[in-house]
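Recap from last week: sequence in, structure out.
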Amino acid sequence: MTGAESLLCSILDCGVLDLSILDDVGYDLGEIYDELIAEGIRPTLNLITGEIFEKGKDALSDKLREKLEEIACERDGYDGDSEEYEMMQEQIDELDSCDPEEDVDWFCNCLDTHVYFLNNEDIYRKYLADEISEIESDMGFSF
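Predicted structure tokens:
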């Protein structure tokens, strides 16, 4: 272990192999670190990873809201009695049943760190597949 690795491991309260879980993260890790410090929290690898997942959950919430608005706007262009209107209303109802605050969870324990859907994964993947892929890329983790 190099001196820099030893220092990072001490600062982040982790092992040297644990550092690799941050390799693919697309978020600004320095910003996450600074936010924790500003809140008076001593950053550890697990806390930083939790913040990464929180950012991913927030992004999923934003994408869900955007998709709902998109479908509602498109639906409003149809007559309320039409088949297209009903189909889009069903999509809205499905998406309305989703809540990333309730549907997404994670576990942070260095090399056993993961994020996952507790509920409604099929609906998220049905309507937000591309958006989920983008979020996963930013987090550096897959749901």
